[in-house]
Structure formats: C-alpha cells, structure tokens
Amino acid sequence: MKRIVVALGGNAIEAGDNSAAAQEKQVKKTMKVVAKMIENGDQVAIVHGNGPQVGNLLLQQYKGSSKDNLAMPLDTVVSMTQGSIGYWMQKALDDQFKHTNYPHQAVALITQIIVNANDPTFKNPTKPIGPFYTFNEMQR
C-alpha cells in the first residue's frame, strides 16, 4: 500500500473546452485511473486547481450582475468551483466503484486558506485566473 497525492490542474480539467460536460468528462477519465489505485489498496488524496474555472465563473457573475442581482465575490466563486469540481470527482469515483463492486465511497471537501494580506508576493501576482486573450480580443 502506498500513500499517493494526485494533483490535477485546472487547465488539465478544462483541456481546451470550458463547458461543464467536457470538464466533467475529463475528470471522469482521470478518476477511472485514480479508482484503480484506490481499489488496489493505495491511500489516495486528490487535490485540484481551478484557475480557469474561477475566471470563467467570475466573468459570468459580472456579466449577469445588476443592482438587484449582484455578482458573487471572488472567495465565493472559488468555493463554487471547488464544489463543482469536487462533485464531479466524487461522482466519477463512486460510479467507478459501483461498476467494479468496490465497497467504499469517495468524499469531497471544500478548503479554506488563510493568507497574510501584507505578504509582498501579492504586489506581483504570477498565477492568472480565467481565460487568456489575444491582443485583438483585449482591444474589444
């Protein structure tokens, strides 16, 4: 038995198609491999990124925002994407476990991180969220 941490990046989940169906399909493909590790007796923790998903949902929030229907703040959008990705992972693992008669269930957890607002690295962020734009797209 091994202890394994599987890290799945947000870009790997999106894989060029940001529709929910395509992302869930990508997660399902990955979780089939992870399920085999678990079924073989390995202890597996899965962590994931969500940069593209956060950015896309944030854009949707701002485009749909009005005086009577305000956009959700960034921390809430982060948790919303954590929840949806965790749901897809848990569902895919549980579906695979049922298919192979593995007698356990997956669990998804939402995390919170405390950071120091005065950390100097916040002055020069290096990890973008959301889509990338060409120069012409930026001009529009």
UniProtKB/TrEMBL annotation:
Pathway(s) where this gene product acts: Metabolic intermediate metabolism; carbamoyl phosphate degradation; CO(2) and NH(3) from carbamoyl phosphate: step 1/1
GO CC terms, sorted: cytosol
Reactions performed catalytically: hydrogencarbonate + NH4(+) + ATP = carbamoyl phosphate + ADP + H2O + H(+)
Superkingdom, natural source: Bacteria
Domain Aspartate/glutamate/uridylate kinase span(s) in chain numbering: 2-108
Molecular function via GO: carbamate kinase activity
Assigned keywords, A-Z: Arginine metabolism, Kinase, Transferase
GO biological process: L-arginine deiminase pathway
SUPFAM superfamilies to which the protein is assigned, alphabetical: Carbamate kinase-like
Signal sequence segment: none
Pfam families listed in its UniProt record: AA_kinase
EC numbers for this chain: 2.7.2.2
Annotated family: Belongs to the carbamate kinase family.
Protein name per UniProt: carbamate kinase
Organism of origin: Lactobacillus helveticus (Lactobacillus suntoryeus)
